[in-house]
């Protein structure tokens, strides 16, 4: 039997990847609102996803303020789809 993706077992990382799987990209503020995480915790979780090459992080400036934008990679899409398939199989859906 396949296994769950250990990286996506974390609720914050799962919410981030799930959201990015549906949209082209999301900024840091939107992900804060979506996850309810603190800025520090979200930063750590995004870094872990980036290190695994599940997401791409682009930093820029918008109206003289730092702007962090995230998007999912092909590897991240595949990992998410595989993780969801595993959960469905586990729950017999």
Task: Write up what this structure looks like.
The chain is an alpha+beta fold and 93 residues long. It has one domain: Arc Repressor Mutant, subunit A. Helix content is 55%, strand content 19%. It contains 4 helices and 3 strands; from the N terminus they run αβααββα. The protein has a 3-stranded antiparallel β-sheet. The chain is elongated and about 50 Å long.
Give the topology, please.
Blueprint lengths: L10 H12 L3 E2 H8 L3 H13 L3 E8 L2 E8 L1 H18 L2
Antiparallel strand pairs: 1-3, 2-3
The order of strands across the largest sheet is: 1-3-2
CATH level-4 homologous superfamily = Winged helix-like DNA-binding domain superfamily/Winged helix DNA-binding domain
Listing every helix as H and every strand as E from the N terminus to the C terminus, the arrangement reads HEHHEEH
CATH class: Mainly Alpha
Unreliable residue runs: none
The proportion of residues forming helix, as a percent range, comes to 40-55%
Number of strands: 3
> What is the rounded Rg?
14 Å
* Helix/sheet category: alpha+beta
How is the main sheet built? 3 strands, antiparallel
User: What is the number of independent domains?
Assistant: 1
Count of helices?
4
CATH topology: Arc Repressor Mutant, subunit A
Kindly report how far apart the N and C termini lie: 15 Å
Q: Name the CATH architecture.
A: Orthogonal Bundle
Globular, elongated, flat, extended or rod-shaped: what is the shape?
Answer: elongated
Write down the overall mean pLDDT. 94
Tell me what portion of residues adopts beta-strand conformation: 15-25%
């Amino acid at each position: 039997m396949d296994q769950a993706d250990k990286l996506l077992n974390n609720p914050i990382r799962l919410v981030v990847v799930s959201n990015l799987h549906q949209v082209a990209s999301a900024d840091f503020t939107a992900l804060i609102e979506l996850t309810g995480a603190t800025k520090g915790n979200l930063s750590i979780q995004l870094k872990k996803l980036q290190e695994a090459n599940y997401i791409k992080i682009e930093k820029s400036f918008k109206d003289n303020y730092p702007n962090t934008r995230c998007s999912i990679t092909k590897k991240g899409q595949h990992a998410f789809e595989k993780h969801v398939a595993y959960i469905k199989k586990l729950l017999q859906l």
